[in-house]
Amino acid sequence: MNNSTLNTQHSTLQQALATELAELETRGLRRTRRVLESPQSAQVTVDGREFTAFCSNDYLGLASHPGLVAAVQEGAARYGVGAGASHLILGHSVAHHALETALAGFVELPRALLFSTGYMANIGVVSALLGRSDAVFADKLNHASLNDAALLSRAAFRRYPHLDLHALEKLLAASRARRKLVVTDAVFSMDGDIAPVPELLFLCERYDAWLMLDDAHGFGVLGREGRGVLSHFSIRSPRVIYMATLGKAAGVSGAFVAGAAEVIETLVQRARSYIYTTATPPLLAHALLKSLELMACEQWRRDQLENNIIVLKQGITKNRWNLMPSDTAIQPLVIGANADAVALSERLAQRGLLVPAIRPPTVPRGSARLRISMSAAHSAEDVGRLVAALNELQ
Questions:
Q1: CA distances from 292 to 103, 250, 284, 286 (A)
Q2: Number of domains present in the structure of the chain
Q3: Contact call for residues 356 and 345 (beta carbons, < 8 A)
Q4: Per residue in 269-309, pLDDT tens?
Q5: Catalytic residue among 96, 248, 286, 290
C-alpha cells in the first residue's frame, strides 16, 4: 500500500469524525471544556473571568484547604513525587498502607484497598469477582463505570428500572447464576436521590447476592462524621462491597473499596485495574489522612452544606422547570430540551454564575438539566444570587 492510499484513508477517517462532531453540534450535545485558572473553590477564575461556581463535587470545600496543601508539601518532602511502580512490585508506600487502614476504620469495614480512580475501582471489583457464570443486577441510572464494569466482566447484565425493588426481586428470583451481584449508586450522580440500601440488602440476603455500593457522592457528606451511606442507614453486613471516591468531598484524588477481608484480598490478587497500573503518588495518600481528620472533626462543613441546600430549595419559586426532589448536594433542575438547558446555563454564566448543562447520554433523552452542585464553601449570599437569577430567568 503506497503513501497516497494511506493518506486517502486517513483523510476519509477524519471526514467521518468531522461529520459525527457536526451532528453532535446540531443536536446540542457537543461538549466544551472551560479552563480553570484558580484553585477549586466556590469562587473561581475561568477563562480570565471571575465566577461563583455551582459545578464542583468539592462538597465540603476541602479541595484548596490550607491543611491539605501543607500535607501535600509534607508528603512530597517525605516520600517524593511519583510512586514509581505498581502496588505489587514496589509502589505500595507506608503512606498508602496507613491510608487503607484509616479508611477501613473510618467506614467500619474490615479492610480497604486504594485505587487510582473510582472508575478503575468499579471496573476492578466487578471484573475480578464475576465471570461468565455470574450475573450483575444494576439500577438503570447507575454511573457509566458500573455499566462498563458489568460488560467487561462478561457476566449476565440485568438492569432494573430506577429504584424499582419489585422488578429487582423478580430478576433475582429468576436467576440461576453462580454468583449474584447487585450494584447501585448510593447517591445518584444526576438525580441526587439516595438508594434504599436497607431494602436492597434485604433482597440480597433473601436471594444470596452481594451488594456493591458506589458511594462517590455520599462519602464525606452522609452519616456520622461523613462516614457515608452505611453510617447513614446504620448498616453493617459482610455482603456489602463499598466503594467511595476521594476526589469529591475528601478534596484530593483516588478511590477505595472496603469490605470483607476475603473480598479485598481477592481484589489484590485479581483486579486488573489495581495490579497493572502505577500506584498513585504517596503524597496524595498522606494528604488524605489529613482530609479524613478534617471530615471527622469539622461538622460545621456538613451543617453549612445542609443549610445551603435548604436555602436553594426554599428560594426557587414554582416555575416551568422541575427542581427534582433531593436532599443531597446534587440539586438537578430539569429543563427538558438540550438547547434550552445550554441557553440557561449560558445566561447564568453571563451573570457570573457557573452551573453546568447536563445532556444525554449522561441523562435520559428529554431530561436535559442544570446540575446544581452545592458546597460548604458557598455562602448564603452565593446561594441567594443563584436563586434570584433562576427566579428572574424563568
A1: 8, 7, 12, 10
A2: 2
A3: yes
A4: 999 999 999 999 999 999 999 999 999 999 999 999 999 99
A5: 248
Is 248 catalytic? The answer is yes
Q: Which of 145, 189, 273, 291 is catalytic?
A: 189
Domain range for 205 is: 66-297
99 and 158 share one domain? yes
Q: Is position 126 within any domain?
A: yes
**What are the distances in angstroms from CA 286 to CA 29, 71, 90, 208, 250?**
39, 7, 17, 38, 13
In the residue annotation, 217 being an active-site residue is answered as yes
Same domain, 266 and 144: yes
- Tell me how far the alpha carbon of residue 354 is from its chain's centroid: 19
What is the Cα–Cα distance from 334 to 316, expressed in whole angstroms?
13
Specify whether the CB–CB gap between 308 and 378 falls below 8 A. yes
Distance CA 323, CA 391 (A): 12
Indicate if 86 belongs to the active site.
no
The one catalytic residue in 180, 217, 232, 290 is 217
Grid cell, residue 323, equals 427542581
The answer to pTM > 0.90 is yes
Strands (E), 194-263: 210-214, 240-245, 255-259
Q: For 120-141, how does the pLDDT look when each residue is reduced to its tens digit (9 = 90+)?
A: 999 999 999 999 999 999 999 9
